[in-house]
Automatic annotation (TrEMBL):
Keyword hit for Nuclease: no
Residue segments, region Disordered: 259-281
Segments forming domain eCIS core: 57-134
Compositionally biased region (Low complexity): 259-274
Entry annotated with the keyword Heme: no
Coiled-coil spans in chain: 17-54
A Pfam entry, by short name: eCIS_core
Any GO BP annotation: lipid metabolic process
Protein name, per record: eCIS core domain-containing protein
Keywords of this entry: Coiled coil
Organism whose genome encodes this protein: Calidithermus terrae
Length: 725
């Protein structure tokens, strides 16, 4: 396609004109709606009078807390949520409005258990108080100062009442006084701080002399009270005190025979003895070498956008000079040694990316009987990283109330199924190995739960958990297929926050590691500070580093040591030495996952904090994704690329507007985009509501973007098929 000289400037000017035209139309509609509302005032007054004596009183407990929050007595507030209330609010184009002591809500807007519902209720209660004090008139009042007061009232309520629970002598923790919270993000943040302090305080009490038995009992009490496992967090705060950690593990599991207490001189001696007695992880885990190869795929190769990894050698770049192998690796040589070839990158909607690694028929190795499907993880954390991939992965992939990985899977489940079926056909036994790092590990587990009959193994690295129901689906499959169950192995480094999310890992083996750094041999080992403990731990390669530390025992481990990626700061000027050691091995069919779970409802504030990022990403990418979904439907119908390209270009050229699809509506619901947004005076229709009515406008820039990507779209939907021109 030939584009005219100066095209970017012309396109920018055209888009600016279109945007200005849309803004003028929007303001005109607002003025017209305001005039219509004023003309309908008499009828509205009559309908409001007809509602007197109806409605439901606000619950007394919530009423009292609103009074405390607003600092003044409130009249008896009546809540209206019936059809007439919905109709009145709709006519006013408001999510809710007040008339005297009555608050009228749109259908579904009255939700005192959600943060958004609490803010809306506090906002309207402030208007009730203003009307009682004679500062505002009933209905919609255009006084900006009063509206600002109501907006300030949306701030979180005061923290809910608390109770104190004694875990051991002199060791108490703070908990919510009631199970169901009316309130507020503020309470959740405060309690989250309390909950995070629990394992640290338990570890401190243990170091100060509390017995292992008492500490184990305190952990059990705390876990029962806060409904999340705390053992691994306590072990993390104990650091390298191996003797204390072993005694605590024995006591927690019911196997302690003596009362172990902390003494100042013991930890170093105990640590040395324990380290000497611990077997190498490669002797404990029979799949160690294969998993170390999967670690390279999940944490390194799956992140590459290059179409041909077999030709990517150390220090090479693509034809644009934009991408070199990560962290000094040599993908071509590593794949060759293990007997695999890389297939084309799979691109989906809303940031999904995966790649298949297929057995090389020309080379047989002990590890290439099964084909591998690897899912890419989060490409940087937004807003620290501001690339498009980082925004999509963080706002859509990670930080929704659905759980990490679920929105991307749901938006691309047919694409994933088609590629998984292809990968399984390339495997002995018709089953694939699924792997992924971070978000990719969650996607691998979800895919296994949805397609257990096509899954042989799931191996994840620094991955969050998934929904309990999905994990139990795999458990049920394994009970029925005892002779050929799905194997799951999980690897994570202590201090990494990502694995704290979610509800349950797939049942299998879990291995945990400690990562320490120091600038030279004269300095003590440390975690690397907050950034090192939280970020670097998530990016490291623990299995590759163990091979480097302990020495390779076979040619395949030598290939990983020589050609694989290693810790990102192994050779940096800031960190001269990195030490990795495995610190725990768990059988999740018997042992509790020893992690501090941050997924409980009263701690789940991340989706709210990323709400506007998700909304921005949705609006920014909805035109592109809507057209992409339509083109994907064409790709599915055409087995030959030339015919697809012709049909796709004809469709793109004739399309200026498309309706929101079911998948787009589902995603909007998941990230809680609503039909109404707050303006200066009242609630108005959101861009999303207008898209539902008018469809999504497909701009010329979006058409150009999709037209440039037709080949990779078709290839993603036709794995293994050759492209004919």
């Amino acid at each position: 396609m030939v584009r005219p000289y100066g095209y970017p400037l012309q396109r920018k000017a055209r888009l600016q004109r279109e945007w200005l035209h849309l803004e003028i139309q929007r303001y005109r509609r607002q003025l017209e709606e305001a005039r219509e509302a004023e003309e309908a005032g008499a009828e509205l007054s009559q309908r409001l009078q007809a509602q007197q004596g109806k409605g439901t009183p606000l619950p007394q407990e919530l009423h009292a807390r609103l009074e405390a929050h607003l600092g003044a007595a409130l009249p008896k507030i009546v809540i209206h949520t019936d059809d007439e209330a919905d109709a009145l609010a709709e006519e006013l184009q408001a999510e809710a409005f007040t008339s005297g002591n009555a608050i009228f809500f749109r259908k579904g807007a009255y939700d005192p258990y959600s943060e958004a519902g609490q803010k809306l209720l506090a906002h309207e209660a402030a208007h009730v108080l203003q009307q009682r004090q004679g500062l505002a008139k009933a209905g919609i009042d255009s006084d900006r100062s009063l509206e600002e007061q109501a907006r300030q009232a949306e701030q979180p309520f005061i923290p809910r009442p608390v109770r104190w629970l004694e875990l051991a002598g002199g060791l108490t923790i703070r908990l919510p006084a009631e199970e169901e919270g009316w309130l507020d993000e503020g309470s959740a943040i405060g309690l989250r701080g309390e909950y995070r302090a629990i394992p640290q305080r338990i570890a401190r009490a243990y170091r100060q002399g509390l017995s292992a038995t008492a500490v184990a009992e305190a952990i059990r009490k705390a876990e029962a009270a806060v409904h999340m496992p705390l053992l691994e967090a306590v072990l993390t705060f104990l650091g390298r005190a191996e003797g204390l950690k072993n005694h605590l593990l024995q006591a927690y599991r019911g196997g302690e025979t003596a009362q172990a207490t902390a003494t100042p001189a013991q930890p170093a001696v105990q640590r040395q003895a324990t380290s000497a007695n611990r077997p190498p992880l490669r002797d404990l885990e029979p799949n160690f070498t294969f998993d170390a190869f999967l670690e390279q795929i999940a944490t390194n190769l799956a992140y590459s956008n290059l179409p041909d990894l077999e030709n990517q050698i150390r220090d090479s770049v693509d034809e644009r000079g934009l991408e070199a192998p990560r962290r000094g690796s040599n993908p071509a040589e590593l794949l060759k040694v293990f007997g695999f070839t890389s297939d084309r990158v799979i691109y989906g909607r809303w940031g999904l990316q995966a790649r298949a690694f297929l057995p090389d028929p020309k080379r047989k190795t002990p590890y290439n009987q099964r084909a591998i499907l690897a899912f890419r993880g989060t490409e940087g954390m937004y807003p620290a990283v501001t690339t498009l991939e980082a925004k999509l992965d963080t706002a859509i992939g990670d930080m929704t109330a659905e759980g990490a990985g679920y929105p991307q899977y749901q938006q691309n489940q047919e694409l994933i199924a088609r590629n998984l079926e292809f990968v399984a056909r390339k495997s002995q036994g018709g089953k694939a190995v699924l792997t992924g790092h971070s978000l990719g590990g969650a996607l691998a587990q979800i895919t296994a739960a949805k397609h257990p009959n096509l899954t042989d193994q799931v191996v994840t690295f620094m991955a969050p958990a998934i929904r309990t129901a999905d994990a139990k689906t795999v458990d049920q499959y394994n009970r029925v297929h005892k002779d050929d169950p799905i194997e799951a192995r999980h690897y994570r480094v202590e201090g990494d926050l990502v694995p704290l999310a979610g509800e349950k890992l797939l049942t299998g083996k879990l291995y945990t590691f400690e990562r320490r750094v120091r600038k030279d041999s004269n300095q003590p080992w440390r975690t690397g500070g907050l950034w090192g403990a939280v970020i670097d731990t998530h990016l490291t390669h623990p299995l590759a580093h163990l091979i480097d530390q302990q020495g390779a025992t076979n040619p395949y481990q030598q290939a990983i040591d020589q050609h694989g990626a290693h810790d990102p700061y192994l050779n940096s000027s800031e960190t001269a030495e990195v030490n990795i050691k495995w610190s725990g091995a768990y059988d999740l069919s018997k042992d509790k996952d020893p992690r501090l779970n941050l997924s409980q409802p009263h701690l789940a504030t991340a989706p709210q904090k990323y709400y506007w990022a998700a909304v921005d990403v949705y609006y920014d990418r909805i035109a592109y994704t809507t057209l992409l979904e339509a083109i994907e439907a064409i790709a599915k119908r055409h087995d030959q690329y030339p015919a697809f390209r012709k049909a796709a270009l004809e469709f793109i050229g004739s399309t200026d507007r498309l309706p929101l699809s079911k998948d787009a509506l589902l995603l909007a619901q998941q990230i809680q985009i609503k039909d109404f947004e707050e303006s200066i005076f009242f609630y108005i229709k959101s861009r999303f509501a207008k898209m539902k009515e008018e469809g999504v406008k497909i701009g010329q820039d979006v058409k150009y973007d999709i037209a440039d990507e037709l080949l990779r779209i078709w290839c993603s939907w036709h794995p293994g098929k050759k492209v004919t021109r």
